[in-house]
Amino acid sequence: MGICQSNNRRPLIKDVYWKLSMIDFFSIEDRNGDGFITLEEIIANTAPLEEHCSASTEKMKALAQGLTEFWTEAGIKPGKKVSKKNFLKGLSKLGEKELERESKGIPTLHSAVANALFDIIDENDNNQLSEKEIRNWMAASGLNPEDAVQIMRDADYREKGYITREELIESEFCSFFRPDKCMIQLGIRVV
Ligand SMILES: [Ca+2]
Ligand SMILES: [Ca+2]
């Protein structure tokens, strides 16, 4: 403790906001509701993107590849059933490594996933995400497309009318590993 830590930040798993949002995430990803998550399940859950966002096989493959590298480092290895407790532990550990990489300017595993996801959502390949494209993404993810307006507001804070690649990557990374930063953006003070 203390002397061995590279900084003073609390582990993610000790952060109640992070934990609650990741428990939510677990429930969404555990589509068959057996209380376990598998890499295969996570990848299968992205399948509707192919139709809703008219994604090519290459784009879908890039996402599956990115997800495999990301989740494998969180301990969710191919063919392995992972409980909620181990999911949170693994993701928290991965988060520490990812934040370390981010601070050193090394590409994160998360950015590979977010880039692949961006390419899929960006149906017309113009390097901008329109509200319509965001709506299709949300529908494919089983979310309410009406919430696209909120997503646009959060990520497109300069109100350009579209989301850039950098904005999507930053906002996705933030929602995964920077609960403190997200809370500040939302104007919520964490006591
Ligand atoms: Ca499951
Ligand atoms: Ca577009």
TrEMBL record:
<protein>
    <submittedName>
        <fullName>Putative photoprotein-like protein</fullName>
    </submittedName>
</protein>
<dbReference type="InterPro" id="IPR002048">
    <property type="entry name" value="EF_hand_dom"/>
</dbReference>
<dbReference type="InterPro" id="IPR011992">
    <property type="entry name" value="EF-hand-dom_pair"/>
</dbReference>
<dbReference type="Pfam" id="PF13202">
    <property type="entry name" value="EF-hand_5"/>
</dbReference>
<dbReference type="GO" id="GO:0005509">
    <property type="term" value="F:calcium ion binding"/>
</dbReference>
<keyword id="KW-0106">Calcium</keyword>
<feature type="domain" description="EF-hand">
    <location>
        <begin position="109"/>
        <end position="144"/>
    </location>
</feature>
<dbReference type="InterPro" id="IPR018247">
    <property type="entry name" value="EF_Hand_1_Ca_BS"/>
</dbReference>
